[in-house]
Amino acid sequence: MNKKQVLMVMPVLKGGGAERVASILTNEFYNNGYSCEFLLTSCEKEDVINRDLDKNIPLLILREFFGKNFMVDAFYSFLRVLSSFLCKPFEKSKKSVPVLFSYLSFVSNYHKEIKAFEKLLKSRPDSTVIAFLQPSIPIVLLAGRKSKNKIIISERGDSNRLMKHRYGFGFIKKYYERADRVVFQTVDAQSVYPENIASKGTVIFNPIKENLPERYTGERNKNITTFCRISHQKNLPLLVDAFAELHKSYCDYRLRIIGDTANEDDEKALKETKEIITKLGIGQLVDFEPFSFNVHQEIIKDAVYVNSSDYEGMSNAMLEAMAIGMPVVCTDCPVGGAKAIIKNGENGILVPMKDKKSLADALLKIISDKELSQQLSENAVKLKEELSLSNIAEKWIKLI
User: Which of 194, 250, 296, 330 is the S-S candidate for 338 at Cβ 3.0 to 4.6 Å?
Assistant: First the structure.
């Protein structure tokens, strides 16, 4: 009897949160007897950063399957220019781009990926395809329109932002319907989608990474900590501003920002954050540290974990900080990942987005109230069992 086959599809593998979830889920499918492959649609082999995917699982690069046809490529280059010209007036006026123009824009940009994936599916007719994120999801859906493969899709970010993208509401309403099932991270995310897509959906939270250290119960260090990929999305200037406010009352605390940048835009976000730190005169109190595989062990004694994001799918860093018993403060940002997990005042504290005073007050409340800090820690760690990898993977396996 042949093993059940799973093909996990992602744009890139560079250490991001969604990539980690996809990787550890694929590992769990593999450990449960599935024949698994992991495919990247928008990445070169030399750009891969594999921190989590089991080395026994084949890692495929879609670009290595591209064919060469000068005339076809020239036609799609022309189509790309034309579609961009057609779409721009709608984007400038902040109106929804017509579905046909969205389709032309996507196909002209990703025709090679679609053709290569069509061929790939023909050689894997029994594989269940699971696709995360743009542009992988539309590539899979457009390439799989003639295939018999079961297709499961899952966007992992802010659905509201996605609907305003060029391949937005109209495109999604028409083409995402080809998916057999849709996985949402939160109820809030599901509610944003067109009804014909939302009705195919189920909500599955992110799994919590295994082998995390046990909860720390001793005296906590005087560190306010975040760990994340450094980007504009994380709104680190808000955290810096709130810390500066806290420092007025608690001058012996430090701020730790742990993480790396992945592109030029991230580098810009880092530069802007450092400029604000310099302007506030707190440079000697802020530590920038690179990502570490031992990050959980290194931060477990710190006073508070903070997520100051403007939007998130469901933050893995938040879940992991809670699972090791850190008191957490998170912004109540779209698409409701923090709100779905945190019971305000019980296992963490939620604060409004972009609200420096509320964030500073929450930090002040935790570090000045040892009893509250301990209560948040004790309740947060309970998530470890509820969102265990085995429990979450079982929900995915039922869909497969």
Answer: 330
Q: What is the pLDDT of residue 288?
A: 97
Domains of the chain and any CATH numbers: 5-68+81-203 (3.40.50.2000), 223-386 (3.40.50.2000)
Q: C-alpha angle with apex 280: 275 to 281, nearest 5 degrees?
A: 95
The structure's pTM equals: 0.91
In the predicted model, is pLDDT for residue 59 greater than 70?
yes
How large a percentage of the chain has pLDDT more than 70? 100
192, 196, 197, 199 alpha-carbon torsion, rounded to 10° = 90
Amino acid at 135: P
**In the chain, pLDDT over 90 holds for what percent of residues?**
89
User: Which letter does DSSP use for residue 44 in this model?
Assistant: -
Residue 77 tokens read as 């280059």
E strand or H helix at 157: none
- In what side-by-side order are the strands of the sheet with 5-10? 59-61, 35-40, 5-10, 127-132, 151-154, 181-184, 201-203
Express each pLDDT in 101-127 by its tens digit.
999 999 999 999 999 999 999 999 999
Which residues make beta-bridge pairs with 181? Answer: 152
- Asked if residue 57 lies in contact with residue 26, where contact means CB atoms within 8 angstroms, the answer is yes
- Helix spans in the chain (H): 17-31, 70-92, 99-122, 136-143, 159-163, 169-175, 187-192, 195-198, 236-247, 264-280, 295-299, 316-323, 337-341, 356-368, 370-380, 383-386, 389-399
What percent helix, strand, coil does the chain show, rounded to 5?
50, 15, 35
Q: What is the sign, positive or negative, of the torsion defined by CA atoms of 280, 283, 286, 290?
A: positive
Give φ, ψ of 225 to 5 degrees.
-130, 140
Q: What's the rounded Cα separation, in Å, for the pair 260 and 301?
A: 22
- What single DSSP character describes residue 145? G
